[in-house]
Design brief:
- The protein is α+β, with helices and mostly antiparallel strands.
- The chain has a single domain, classed as Roll (SH3 type barrels), CATH 2.30.30.
- The chain is 19% helix and 54% strand.
- β3 and β4 form a beta hairpin.
- The longest helix is centred in the first third of the chain and has 10 residues.
- 12% of the residues are buried.
């Protein structure tokens, strides 16, 4: 992901990713990270949702735009 400096830029970028497959790396603290692959499903004013197949079941997970700004999560387009 390129470096975004504001939440508005991040929202616009996520809007462009709707329907595309991405890899999300979530920082869980104490040097623990979780990497997941999914599709950006919808973008709302304060968060966006990702659809993922985890153990054969479809799950939806939401993330805040602030998480990207603070580097709690990293989004990479496939």
């Amino acid at each position: 992901m390129t470096t975004q400096s504001s939440i508005e830029e991040i929202k616009e970028w996520i809007d462009l990713l709707i329907g595309k497959e991405v890899v999300i790396e979530v920082n869980k603290g104490r040097k623990r990270t979780v990497t997941r692959r999914g599709t950006v499903e919808k973008a709302y004013p304060f968060f966006f949702t990702l659809r993922m197949d985890i153990d054969g079941s479809c799950q939806r997970i939401s993330f805040n735009y602030v998480d990207i700004l603070t580097k709690t999560i990293e989004v990479e387009v496939l």
